[in-house]
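U., I forgot to send this yesterday:
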Amino acid sequence: MDKFLEEELTTLSSFAEGKTELSREQLKTRLGVVGAILHGCASVLPFWYDEEKIKLIETVVDLEPLSMRTTTEDEKQQVTYKGGNARKAIISVMDQVQV
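Result:
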């Protein structure tokens, strides 16, 4: 994941900070690549639990993500980005870009 996501997130972060200029088409392409990466590996990206959940509405339904085991414990695999949580890294950059 580092191989493909690094350039996209670095460029988008630079764009959000005003250090890099991107045309509308270039921005759309880079966001599309990040979206395709997310879509392709979503089932093996780890969730994170180190932050408080956002309560949007009152509910009696447990909002914890479903955990489906598709491998044995010995084969448990997760896709990371720079050794950390890929979802969180992507969300951090997307938050910068949208501001």
